[in-house]
Amino acid sequence: MQKPTQTSFIDNGSVLYELVKAENSAPLYLEYDNITGKHQFLDSVTFDEVTHIPPQTELVANGTIKLATEPREYGEPLTLFEDIRHFIYKYVDVTDRFLTISALYAMLSWVYDCFDVIPYLRLKGEFGTGKSRFLIVVGSICYKACFAGGAPLYRQSFGLLRCIKG
Hints:
The protein is of the alpha+beta class. The chain has helices at about 60, 75-90, 95-110, 130-140, and strands spanning about 5, 10, 15-20, 30-35, 40, 45, 50-55, 145-150, 150-155, 160-165.
């Protein structure tokens, strides 16, 4: 048996394994079966004599990388979009147009792997105008946002540990 592989996401056809972290727990895999809709939490996953384990890093433990905690059904995408807009509006003051862009960007971060290229969300402004606050609020709902120096970096330095099984 070879050394375990550290992986944050595994796509095994109809079954997905996503790295999650509940409060006061070590990172685990959430196994989700697209056919049955059932899920369970696992410490490791083995395919073809290769064992995959959650990445052994302090980046999750110390909050640098934020992970989802559990699956949750939101129903219609428009309902989710409106809930995200309301969440952002509650904590930051931006124009309605930028509020819409921000909510769409947060949703896009969860399906980034469906695209070859996606944009970055960039903020510019004077000191004290709320850029860091905005990044923390929006980053808290983005997929695997990496917080460095108080502000999130949205690209997948952590997501490169992926495994796609055919």
